[in-house]
Amino acid sequence: MDGTIFIGGGGENYGDKQGLLLKYANRHGLVAGATGTGKTVTLQIMAESFAAQGVPVFLSDVKGDLSGLAKAGSAGFKLHEAFTSRAEKIGFDDYSYDAFPVTFWDLYGDQGHPIRTTVSEMGPLLLSRLLELTDAQEGVLNIAFRVADEQGLGLLDLKDLQALLVWVGENAKDLSLRYGNVSTASIGAIQRALLVLENQGGHKLFGEPALELSDIMRTDTDGRGRISILASDKLMGAPRLYATFLLWLLSELFEELPEVGDPDKPKLVFFFDEAHLLFDDAPKALVDKVEQVARLIRSKGVGVYFVTQNPADVPEDILGQLGNRIQHALRAFTAKDRRALKQAAETYRDNPRFSTEDAIREVGVGEAVTSFLEAKGAPGVVERTLIRPPSSQLGPIEPSERKALIDASPIAGKYETLQDRESAYEVLTKRAADAAKEAEEAERREEEAESAAEREYRAGRRYSGSKVGRSTSRRKSSGGFGKAVTDVVIKELKGTTGKRIVRGILGSLFKGR
Questions:
Q1: Which residues are bridge partners to 30 per DSSP?
Q2: Residue ranges per domain, the chain?
Q3: Which long-range contacts (CB under 8 A, 24 or more apart) does 79-82 make?
């Protein structure tokens, strides 16, 4: 099937061969179905097919199963007979086992190349979503980013942002006059959220070298697209971090890639597994942003495929943009499940040969109800489809095999060493040190001047004799209680406590320079 991603079909009670036209693959899609119905295998065969056509793929490996894409299947596999039988049944005449070029990525750097961005690139909107901030706290974070831009403070990692928030807190009064209220309570809440994120390992996401998009859009020497696999089994322990990172990557693709219109095949296909995590409790502003990106990114040549259990997990405005659909079985045990099943069935173009609702309920493991865009981008009639078997290994490869592939990767060594160039943390730390040094120098000069005055006073008394005039005595005694307090304060300022007070006051003044 030239220019087509072969999905499956054929056999008794099934329609003709079903395929996804490459020229409409950037019109996005949906892979849905209950747990255990075959979504992961469908994701695997789609990645294989796109790669074979020279299209780079980015996907997340939530269960740890998809590393098998890097290794060819074998006749010794327990499902070999079932696979070959199915291939014959659906007319998959050139079915064979094969391995595909894979690049492994891991936010934590354990199961793949480290993958990072900077705090500046993430931006205040996505960071607010990641940190679960209130509107007021998000406003303070926006102010912090504005200050960083105005003062040329690079925000690369979490310690840069933490240092900037300290500075914002120290200068809250001045900033509030210009930008609106900057409360210490909001700053404290943001700092606590950053601490939680750091404890979850989120600090490893931020830093340099940051990901270059070209490294997930590579083709191999034989012209096949490389499949970038993000290890997400550990990352799923921090679902908000997982969803925010993938959304950031999607928005970066949208902002950086040039317009290409409707290419003959996509420049990249992006699979968003566990897509419900993106929309759970998401504020409307974020959902609107995702809708905008989904609507416009196809003109950049990127196809986005949401993988989830139920189509209802995806907001209607976004669901309406997903033209290519593979629906595995949905289980309808409750009234809510039945309503969701009926709603899912209504989104397909009816086939007079069967009830779509019944088909979605009845299809078995490895089967699906499918609908793909046809000529002129019109939705195709829904069909029951046997999904083709994978050519690569079903299940994960060995850790030693993964390590060998990471070491032999074309980007090996590029991201492994963390860089820490001068940024907000270093600049603000230096400002604080300079301010403290200048405050100490001012204090030293003041003490020297005070000592000189005392020496002159003592010298004056020595030369004038020990007899003190009545007017002088009256002036000394007239100070009373106020003079005593002043003496105590001066004594304290000469001590360690006083030095801390003076340094703190002057430090806040000089840090603004």
A1: 306, 325
A2: 4-110+218-407, 119-205, 424-510
A3: 79/389, 79/394, 82/389
Token readout for 261 is 């219109």
Residue 170 structure tokens = 């120290």
Burial 398-435 (b: 16+ CB within 10 A, else e): eeeebeebbeebebeeebeeeeeeebbbbbbeebbeeb
User: Cα dihedral angle (66, 96, 304, 208), rounded to 10 degrees?
Assistant: 50
What is the rounded CA–CA span in Å between residue 56 and residue 58?
7
Choose among 511, 27, 20: nearest CA to 263: 27
3-state secondary structure at position 117:
strand
Please state which architecture CATH assigns to domain 4-110+218-407: 3-Layer(aba) Sandwich (3.40)
CB 229 within 8 A of CB 105: yes
3-state SS class at 124:
helix
- Rounded to whole angstroms, the Cα distance separating 240 from 92 reads 40
pLDDT, mean of residues 183-195: 95
Following DSSP, what letter does each residue of 54-111 receive, concatenated?
T--EEEEESSS-GGGGGSB--TTSTTHHHHHHHHHHTT-TT-------EEEEETTSSS
In tens, the pLDDT along 302-359 reads 999 999 999 989 998 899 899 999 999 998 888 888 888 898 898 899 999 899 999 9
- Give tens-digit pLDDT for 487-497: 443 444 444 43
Angle between helices 158-170 and 119-131 (to 10 degrees): 80
